[in-house]
Every structure is written in C-alpha cells, then in structure tokens.
Amino acid sequence: MTATSRASWPVRTRSSGRHPLRMLPSAAQRNRAFVLLVLLALGSVAVVGREVKTGERGILAQGARATRVVTYTLTEGHELHVQVEPGTTAVRFVVHGIRGAGDIQSQASATFTARLHGEHEERTEQLTLPLPKATGRATMEQGDAVVSDPLGVDIDLRKTGIGDLALHLESLRGADSLAIRVYRRQAPSAHGGVGRRGGASLPLRERLARQAGELDWVDLNEDERLTVVASRLAKTAASSDLEAALATRVLVLIPDKPELATPVAHTLATFALSQEQRAAFTVHGPASLVVRCEDTRTAPIVATLATPGAAPITRGARGELRLEVGDGETQLVELSTEGSHRLGLCGPHGTALTLPSPLSYVRATPTRRVLISAPAAALIVRVQARRPMALTEAPQADIDIDASIVDAAGRTFRTPVHATVARSVYDRYEGSADTAPSEPVVLYLMIPARGRAELAARDGSVDVSLAELDPLAAPRPTRVVPAERAALEPWRGDQSQQWAGFVARAPTNLGSFPNDARGNLGIAHRIPMASGQRMTTSPLRIARPRLHGVLRRHGFLFEPAQHPLGFSVTSHQQSALDLRFYAKGRTQVVVQIDGEVPRRDEAGVFKHLTLARSVTVEGETRCHVELGDDLALGPHTLYFSSSPDESVYVHVPWRHRTRIEKPVAWLAGDFEP
Q1: What are the start-end ranges of the E strands in 295-409?
Q2: b or e along 514-526 (b: 16 or more beta carbons within 10 Å of the residue's beta carbon)?
Q3: Which one has a higher pLDDT value, 39 or 311?
Q4: I need a labelling partner for 547 at 20 to 30 A (CA). Which of 93, 309, 605, 633 fits?
C-alpha cells in the first residue's frame, strides 16, 4: 500500500451544441441583430451570476477548465467496501479532506485500516495519510465547505483474486469528513502503453490522468505516464457498512491552465542547502529558469548540467543564475552553494520538471524488526537500507544488518550485512533540516513461497525501504554503444525512473511501527558520475554452436541469435557478459537467462539480481548483460528474441574447441547505477 500526494494539473471538459444564426437581408439588419444578441447575452450572464452557488461560480469562471466529480462521504468510525473483480491489480482511493468552518489544518491526517478478504490472500494493514492543504483547486458544488487537494492511495491486489476490500476510517484530524473516489486498475501492458502514448490526444491524456485520481497530465513523471496509459482504469462503485447507502458529494476541480498561463516567473521549487548538500532535478525543455538565493544576493550559486551525449558542464553566478533548456532537450541539473542557504527555482508555471521522488521507509532497530511474508508464490524484494546521520557528525557511518530468511519447512538462512556508507548530499528527509540519510546499501531477498524474511539493525537505527519485483514487468533496458567504441562506458542518463520493474511495498508488520518510526525520503534525480574505472569484459566463454549462416565482421564471428547458448556458473559472484549484436534494420532484442525466469537460488540474500534485458540493436551494437550472484550453480542457457522479427546475429567471447576446460572466473564491479 502506497500513498503519494501529487501536484495538480488542468482538466478539460467538452461542451457541444450550436446556435444557428439566420442570414439577414441587409447590413443594417445584421448590425441591429448583433447588438440585440450582445445585450441578450449580457443579460443572461447577469441572471445566471445571481443564481449560482459557489462551485457553479467556479465552473463559470473557469469554463472548460473545470470538471465535476461525484465522491463518497466517509466519516470517522465508518467504512466503505469495494468488490475486487477478476483481473484487478490495484484499487486506488482518491481522498479529499472536507472542513465546514476554517481551513484544512497543516497537521491534518486520516488513519485507515484496510481489510482484504480475497480468494488467494487475506491481510489487514494500517495507514496514516497526511491530508494536503486546500489551494482552491477543488471546491464544493453546493455549500462553502473547504476542500483539500487530492491524495492518491494505491492498494496492491495482484495476488488477491476476487474478494472484498474494506477501508475503515479509524481517526480523522484537522477535517470534518472525507470525500473519496474509487478506481479499479487492471494489469498494465508496457508495450501497449508505449504504442498508445504516442497517439494520445491532450483530452485523452487529461481523462486518463483524472481516472488515476489526478488533475493534470503534465505533472506526471515518465513512469507514471506510461503506467496510466498502459493500464485500464475505471471508476468503480463502493458500498457502506451501514444499511443506508453511502452519502455522496459533488466536487468541482478547478486547476490552473499551464498552456494558457502568462509566462511569468513563479517559484516552482525551493531547496534548503546546508554545508555540502546539493539539489538535483531534471528539466524537460523548452524551459527558461532562474535560480535565486532567497536569503542573500551575494552567495555563489553553482550549477552542474548534464545532457545525453555530452560531458557535464559547470556554470556559476552570485545571487541569481539563469538556465535555458531547448525544445525537446532533457537536462539533469545539480545546484550547490557555499554555507547554508535557501535556493528558489523560478520559471513559467507548467515548466516540465522531475523533482525528487518520494520514498517511504520504516526505521528498524535491534528490537524492532522488519518482517516480510511471502504468499503462495515466491517473492523477490529489493531492500534499500540507509543510516540517519546528523549534519554535524562525521560524513561516514557503518550499517550493520542481520538478514534471515525462513522457508515453509522452517529452514533458516542467515546473512550478516556490513557496509560503510557516506552521508548523501542529494537525498533528504521530509520535514527534517538537521538530519540527512546516508547513501543506500541495496540487497535482494529471495523469499520462497509461504516463507518470510526478517531484517534487524545490529546497532542503532537503520531506515529500510522495500520494493517487490513485478513478474509482469517488461525487460530492463540495457545501455548500448556502437561496436567501434573501445570503452563501454557511455553517459548513463537518469536511470532511477527509466524502469518500473520494482513496485514499492510496505513491510508485513507495518502496524508495529509507530508514526515516529515511519517517514518519507526525497530521492533526487542526480547526475551519474563516472567511476573512473574502465569496464572490462568477463572472461566467461561460451562454446560456439557452429551453425550454418555464420557471419564474420571485423574479425568477429557472429552466430544466428535465434539459437540458445549454454554456459555454466561455478561460483556466486557478479559478472558482465560482453555481447555484440548485428542487424541490418533497427530491432529490439530481448536477452533472457533460462527463459522467462532465471534459475536462481531458492532462498538467500544477494547483492546483484539477474534480469531479462532489452537491447536496441541497429547495425553492429555492443552491450554488457549483467549476471548477478543470485544464479544457482550449474548449467544455464541464454535465449535471444527480436521484435520486429529481424535476422539478428550475436557474438560472445567464444570458447576454443581445443581449450582445456577451466573453472569460470568472475569479475566483480558496479556495472549498473
């Protein structure tokens, strides 16, 4: 279960109908008719203006920019029920706080208990949501009650089957009641989403965004847009826990209109920087931005800019720095200054920015463990562990974790994890100015069916964020370079939002963590810096199948890629296999290990994960495919498939027939960001 508060954006509604005018025989008659029509129109507006309610005045003022939505009313101590239909992967609740007198308080929150009774699983979870402020983007159609901006809550139902989902409002602070909309999401298709996204008109995009519980398409990041387009979303009904039907309210959504806004400078974001901290974000052009120091006009501002295909550049100024990003360009920006200052990012309203992404965490201690239970199917969970560090203490700290996995038979696999990490200069705790998280330690937990995993800090506190591998996710894209390049270390770009194969999840025992042991991080979209090490190819060699139709290019032998290749794993270490592909036309090649699911160890804790890879091949192309330390010892098979169906050839480091067999040697290295 995840909760995110999102920015709002414009929504359009369409009006139809024509008012035919009869042609008059003379210019004088036409002029008189025109004056009469103007007077009648002004009189109509005056009459309507006296009769409408507050929400209707908003609709008249905003015209096609406003839209009406029907919501359910939920009060403290009551609940609503949603039937889980076949094929449902998630249910989204879009929540507005309602207050009859006064504004929505800054500390307003709602605490829910979600009870799920499904065909394949049952679970109960608790969630406390901070209600957003009321900015005027949502109003009541009838009455003068204050309405907060929307907050979206997703409940994962991929393993549930048919069933019933109940959302009980335990407590409500800072508001009188809630207005809730309910949406049902079906399994997304990444390929279908890519195809439909390109042809989606602006009204369609806005309608899809509204179905996702949002107000505007432009504020969604790339992954969210793809998910919204690729998913089938539908508004669904809910029922009450009482005999009477749920009460309903009609809200009017009145967002700003970026494409019609006057291009004046608005404060788009602010960054409070202390000591060595930096602000990082992505700008999608065209954009004309100004960075200002809000507390002094003499502080130096330094911006490091990175564009795909070019080396990062640095620009600086005192007090104010201007940035220009061309149409169609994407630029990563890092800001820094001397001392502790507050920087404001200003520009036209509607500028496309990718600001730090929210990430939930729970704080583990030696006595408060993180528990993850697997259902009837095995789970692969990515763990990010961070140490909370005061800005006044040393810039490095140790993370010590005890990780244990227990299978259905009761067998236990224990792994101690130790790492020395640096304090992050990019990431932030929400609402904390004197503490920063460390850089993360990333682990992968292989939890067998009906098994469980436990994580505990051996010393101090460790903040743990979890994400579950989506078995239906498209293959992860792989970085490629033309084959003539000697070094396989191109500009990596912003990798954090390019692949949505992991879905954020909460611990199974989330309810055992008090509110002060939960929180959110702001994860920055930073510029990936080169490691300074040249990536070397793995000495792993594969026996060449010696098929008909072999291709020789520049001294390399290429075999037809439609045939699988076998190799063997003799130790649990990470490796990267050097691959060269050749195809006359542009094609997408998917590289799979052992078919759809790699043959991994059944249970364990691993540093690197083996995944199916997607490679864009055009001419002769070179790439590395990472093989993680999760692969089971013994024989494995590489499979290749192309789309569209193109004649593709592959070269790997072939093993000579006369060469004496030796154990496979693996090279460790950080091949992925």
Answers
A1: 300-306, 313-318, 320-325, 330-337, 341-347, 352-354, 357-364, 370-373, 379-386, 388-390, 396-406
A2: eeeebbbbbbbbb
A3: 311
A4: 633
Average of per-residue pLDDT values in the chain: 77
If you compute the radius of gyration of the chain from its CA atoms, what whole number of angstroms results?
28
Q: Which tokens hold the place of 449?
A: 């069916």
- CA dihedral (48, 49, 55, 58) in degrees, to 10, reads 110
Using DSSP, state whether 320 is helix, strand or coil: strand
Q: Which of 28-32, 235-239, 314-318, 390-394 has the lowest mean pLDDT?
A: 28-32
Tell me how far apart the alpha carbons of residues 97 and 71 are, in angstroms, rounded to a whole number: 12
Rounded Cα–Cα distance for residues 84 and 116 (Å): 9
Overall average pLDDT of the 442-455 stretch: 94
Quick one: pLDDT at residue 204? Answer: 54
- Identify whether the C-beta of residue 92 lies closer than 8 Å to the C-beta of residue 167: no
Which of 171-175, 270-274, 446-450 is the most confident on average? 446-450
- Are 221 and 497 contacting, i.e. CB atoms less than 8 angstroms apart? yes
Give SS3 for 39: helix
Give the H or E element holding residue 273: strand 266-273
Instruction: Calculate the alpha carbon distances from 204 to 200, 235, 549 in Å.
Output: 6, 16, 48
- Does residue 145 come out as left (phi exceeding 0), alpha (psi in the -120 to 50 range) or beta? beta
What's the DSSP call for residue 119? S
- CB contact at 8 A, 505 and 468: yes
- Report which listed range, 58-72, 125-139, 233-247, 361-375, is most confident: 361-375
Residue tagged 């004046």 (tokens) = 264
- In the chain, the percentage of residues whose pLDDT exceeds 70 is 73
Asked if 220 contacts 167 with a C-beta cutoff of 8 angstroms, the reply is no
